[in-house]
From TrEMBL:
Sorted UniProt keywords: Membrane, Transferase, Transmembrane, Transmembrane helix
Protein origin, superkingdom: Bacteria
Gene Ontology terms, MF aspect: phosphotransferase activity, for other substituted phosphate groups
A GO term from the CC aspect: membrane
GO biological process, one term: phospholipid biosynthetic process
Annotated protein name in UniProt: CDP-diacylglycerol-glycerol-3-phosphate 3-phosphatidyltransferase
Membrane-crossing residue ranges in chain numbering: 38-57, 111-139, 160-179, 185-205
Length: 216
């Protein structure tokens, strides 16, 4: 991240929140955790959430497992928020920062989506969704490698995917408590797949348009 560019950073309005900025400053003053360590914590929370989600296949305490997954997803997102803020605003950029910024995200996405597929006995679809999530990131980084601003466009960018996962875990917990069904999880899986495919297409079109405009 020493070669950091503002166009490589996902635009998030929450970064301007005073409470968030105060927490980031507090973290920046400490030797632990470092921005890279915060990035690794995001994997830990994603794995814990994925374990909880995958275990709903047993049919026991489903609503509680979905609530645990919801909390873990939010903790993962907080790690994603603060690793960059502490690194940039706290002036703690490191030579390996770019790797820690990207690789944990790909792992965290993958384990959650594979867990969703496993929980529904649709592992192949979970794996397909994990692949699509990686493709959205690959296409974004491809634009950057071509000298263009990285495209964070949706309709199913990372924050949108995690918003869907959070919402469906909450709705799914209510659905299971009331009806002992999990149709909402199936619907979310379909929505995530379609949305991720659309995101890949949108970003490719965006890159192609910018390349044509620049004459590259």
């Amino acid at each position: 991240m020493q070669n950091y560019r503002s166009t490589d950073r996902r635009p998030l309005a929450v970064r301007s929140n005073k409470i968030v900025q105060k927490i980031a400053r507090w973290l920046a003053k400490r030797s632990f955790p470092t921005p890279n360590q915060i990035s690794l914590f995001s994997i830990l929370f994603a794995v814990l959430g994925a374990i909880a989600l995958s275990l709903i296949i047993t049919g026991d305490y489903v609503e509680w497992k979905l609530i645990i997954c919801t909390v873990c997803i939010q903790l993962r997102l907080l790690c994603n928020l603060f690793d960059g803020m502490v690194a940039v605003e706290g002036n703690k950029l490191s030579p390996l920062g770019a790797l820690y910024n990207e690789v944990p995200d790909r792992i965290a996405d993958s384990v959650l989506f594979v867990a969703l597929g496993f929980a529904l006995s649709e592992l192949s679809w979970g794996l397909f969704l994990a692949l699509l999530a990686m493709m959205t990131a690959y296409i974004r980084n491809l634009g950057g490698a071509l000298g263009l601003p990285q495209s964070f466009k949706g309709p199913m960018a990372k924050q949108h995917r995690m918003a869907v996962m959070t919402a469906v875990c909450i709705i799914g917990a209510i659905e299971w408590y009331m009806f002992k069904t999990n149709y909402s999880l199936y619907l979310a899986l379909i929505l995530l797949v379609i949305g991720s495919i659309a995101t890949c297409i949108v970003r490719l079109i965006d890159i192609a348009t910018l390349l044509n405009q620049s004459g590259k």
